[in-house]
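Anyone up for a design puzzle?
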């Protein structure tokens, strides 16, 4: 049986709280942008194709980074581990808002995300 494929999206939780106070929908949109950019950027990878072919059975997990520094630290860790992802930066402000990994077998990436909890 093939390993379960999952796409992880990590969003900054601090953006919905003061002093930022972004609307929840704006932060969700950032996650959508990151997820789509990651899928598009890695569309030739076999795992991405297999993930998309799952249709209604695709699994996406949305996690929360407490702040910008933790998000940037995660991006650095992912680069060091060779895990492909896309950081989404809101333009024109240049604010890193979230990142999405390309679809991966769950067991391959989950250990690197254990410090992050589900977005609430």
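Challenge accepted. My sequence:
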């Amino acid at each position: 049986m093939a390993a379960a494929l999952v796409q992880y999206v990590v969003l900054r939780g601090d953006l919905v709280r003061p002093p930022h106070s972004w609307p929840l929908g704006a932060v969700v949109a950032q996650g959508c942008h990151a997820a789509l950019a990651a899928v598009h950027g890695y569309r030739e990878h076999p795992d991405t194709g297999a993930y998309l072919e799952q249709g209604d059975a695709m699994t996406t997990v949305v996690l929360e980074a407490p702040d910008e520094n933790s998000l940037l630290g995660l991006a650095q860790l992912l680069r060091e581990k060779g895990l492909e992802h896309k950081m989404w930066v809101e333009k024109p402000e240049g604010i890193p808002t979230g990142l999405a990994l390309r679809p991966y077998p769950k067991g391959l990436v989950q250990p690197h995300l254990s410090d992050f909890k589900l977005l609430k």
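A detail worth pointing out: The chain has one domain: 5-118.
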